Amino acid sequence: MAKPLLFLDIDGVLNPVLPSAEFTAYDILDHTVLLSAAHGAWLRELSAVYELTWASTWEHEANRHIAPRLGLPVLPVVEFGRYRPRPGDPRLPRADLFTGRKWAPILRHAAGRPFAWIDDVIPRRLARQARFRPDRVLLRINPGHGLNRGHVDRLLNRGPLPTRSVRLARRESLTVHQF
Ligand SMILES: [Mg+2]
After folding, report:
1. Are strands 51-54 and 5-8 parallel, antiparallel or unpaired?
2. Helices and strands (DSSP H and E) totals, the chain
3. Cα of 172 to ligand 1 centre, how many Å?
4. How many A from CA of 54 to the centre of ligand 1?
5. What's the gap in Å between 124 CA and the centre of ligand 1?
6. Of 65, 68, 71, 87, which is least surrounded by CB within 10 A?
């Protein structure tokens, strides 16, 4: 069975706002980017369980500039810039249109597979809805400090369940939304 997907944001997750001793500053494409070797090790650990996928506005630049510095291979990329809304996309309240702009492309990319999404910008409403979806884990990350070991343990110990479990949950009449 295919692994669940792990959608990875970069800024505010792997590149935190606040510098600390574990991070090295790099000048990349006119930005100062803070990266940590520990993040690379954690992501390689997670790759045993998940199919890592970039879900960042860095898009393909993540494979050129971030992945090599974290010791990661070239990863699949969710393309946000080229995404055009399609019939059947989830409808978001106006207040969430900006913060939820990654949601439809992520769902299209997942195409029904279980997934986790780690990002510092996830509408609270989406995070709440995901609690009713055993096949989805949405983790809102504090951008000040970025990804920590607690998040990794959560993803390893209580990750998204296979879709079969969702079918069972449906039978037990748990509320499951299409999107
Ligand atoms: Mg971010």
Report:
1. parallel
2. 7, 6
3. 36
4. 11
5. 15
6. 87
pTM for the predicted model, two decimal places: 0.90
Q: How many angstroms is it from 168 CA to the middle of ligand 1? A: 34
Structure tokens given for 18: 């606040």
For 39-178, strand residue ranges (E) read 51-54, 115-119, 136-140
Q: What CA–CA distance (Å, rounded) separates 22 from 25? A: 10
pLDDT truncated to tens, each residue of the chain (179 aa)? Answer: 799 999 999 999 999 999 899 999 999 999 999 999 999 999 999 999 999 999 999 999 999 999 999 999 999 999 999 999 999 999 999 999 989 999 999 999 999 999 999 999 999 999 999 999 999 999 999 999 999 999 999 999 999 998 765 555 555 544 444 45
Cα 167 to averaged position of ligand 1 atoms, centre (Å): 32
Say how many Å lie between the CA of residue 171 and the centre of ligand 1.
Answer: 36
Distance 176 CA to ligand 1 centre (A): 27
> Domain spans of the chain?
5-171
Region at 146 (left for phi over 0; alpha for psi -120 to 50; beta for the rest): left
Structure tokens at 160: 């998204």
